[in-house]
Each structure stands twice: as C-alpha cells, then as structure tokens.
Amino acid sequence: MHDTAWIDFMRLPHSMDQETIQSVGRAYWRGVKVETCELTTMGKPWHGESCPEVLFYGTLQFPNKALTAD
After folding, report:
1. Do the beta carbons of residue 47 and residue 20 sit within 8 Å?
2. How far, in Å, CA of 10 to CA of 26, rounded?
3. 45 vs 66, more confident
4. Which of 20, 27, 42, 54 is positioned for an S-S bond with 32, CB 3.0–4.6 A?
5. What is the reported pTM?
C-alpha cells in the first residue's frame, strides 16, 4: 500500500535537491506513511494527511456499466 500524500508533498511549490527527491520516491515505494515522517517545506514543518493508495493489477468488472447510482 502506498501513501498519495507523498505526491502532494512533491507538488508543493518548493525546490528539492536530488537527494530529497530520491528519498521521497523510496519512501513512497516502500509504503512509508507521510504522517510518520518529519517533513519541511520553505523552512516550515509540513504535515500531510495520509491517503492510502492500492495498486491493483487485473481487470475490474462493474455491474452497472453506465456508472449511475441506480
């Protein structure tokens, strides 16, 4: 399971050195939750709300192909 809050952190309007970018990438792929890390942006602490992401390999079958609420 991955935490999409890492993507939110990467999208912030700040600059990151190559080491930080690699560290964030490794944390994302290892499944580290953002809420367990101390992150800073622009010299200030940043706290993101973890949002689990599940990577699914396969086919999804939807019983209602029209995707309506019925």
Report:
1. no
2. 13
3. 45
4. 27
5. 0.70
